[in-house]
Amino acid sequence: MIQLLISNKKIRTALLVIMALLACVSLLQGVRNAVRDSQDFQWDAMKVFSMRINPYDESDSMNPSGILDEYGYDEYYLQMEANQFPSLLMLLLPFAPLKPLTARYVWIVCNLVFTFLIILLLRKTFLKDLDGYWFSIISLLMIAGTPYRNQMGVGQHTLFAFCLFLVAVYYSEYCEKRNAIVTTLALFVCYFKYTLTVPLVLYFVYKKRYKEVIISAFMHVILTGVSAWWLSDSFLNMIIKPLKVSSNLAAEGGLDISALLKGSPISYFLALIIMVVLLAMAVKLPEGCDRSYISVLALWSLIITYHRTYDFFVMIVAVALFLEMKELDKLKIYYIVTTLAVFFVLRLFHEADLSKIVVGAMYYALTFVVTYKVMRLIWTRKAS
């Protein structure tokens, strides 16, 4: 019945028009919110860093120096929360000469560019074999969803980091002229949202791109040392202090394990176990499981550690699973329902606790089932 409906030309056209309208409304609202808010952009932390003032001490202080008052800081930001490592803050230094509002407008334009590139790169990589019509629907769904709109509105960095991750994938695996240097540099930048991209980078372990992973990580080690010198602080503090700031948010996520356990230290132990299992999969998986593995990584990456629901637009990558494993076609409907629940139902109920419990249960069930099915099917294929 459903197949007959979606094969009807008029219904397909109507669905495309509806999704396009929803995406336009969501995009415009996201930009509007970003002009007003963008509190997560971290211009403030980057600015004091550029002035050789420790942003982590400023974040932790009950009596901040007020050094940014002359820039109109209070008009655009409420409280400094420098939860990014210094090597990542350095990536925002091109915005240092700009005033807060100007920087905000430039960042909005950047996020629009990242959005376009994400769609383009998904088309050239993991979703390149998806039917053109359904790729358009998936892309519009991503933009129409609450996660994307809120991502834009708060000036977050997931679009930035995810875009650079896909750049790394493209130049590593899909480009006719593969480029290890571009791949390494893209990986280096994509760690900006390390809670998302560190799990995703296990994909490069699976592809045996060890050199690119190691060098890109080591570049941050070097910059952390440079930052310690720049701020006249210790190398160890350049790691501990941002983690201390970010740990204050551990229980405030959306559907992640840490939020589920109210910020309990147990959540870190569980995250470590999950990462070990995903790493074992990367080592053991046979060739030809690219899309299945990235789907598993994408689903887990959003719940292993702290994530607000504005990061969940990334879950559309899991569509790639169904392009590679036809055996899992029966999961399509459940995946679609879960995605719609995350994208729209949570917002409908203002992310009330009951709605997060129900939608969270759906998401965890999907993630566990997909992981189990992929591991089982892969083991079966390997054995045969």
Spell out the blueprint of helices and strands.
Blueprint: H1 2-7, H2 9-36, H3 43-50, H4 55-60, H5 73-76, H6 86-89, H7 100-124, H8 132-144, H9 146-153, H10 158-174, H11 180-190, H12 194-200, H13 202-206, H14 210-230, H15 237-247, H16 257-260, H17 266-284, H18 290-301, H19 320-324, H20 332-348, H21 353-383
Task: Please explain how this structure is put together.
By secondary structure, this protein is mainly alpha-helical. 68% of the residues lie in helices and 0% in strands. The chain has 21 helices and no strands. The protein has helices at 2-7, 9-36, 43-50, 55-60, 73-76, 86-89, 100-124, 132-144, 146-153, 158-174, 180-190, 194-200, 202-206, 210-230, 237-247, 257-260, 266-284, 290-301, 320-324, 332-348, 353-383. Helix 11 (180-190) packs across helix 14 and helix 18 (290-301) runs antiparallel to helix 21 (353-383). The chain is globular. 45% of the residues are buried. The model has no long low-confidence stretch (mean pLDDT 87).
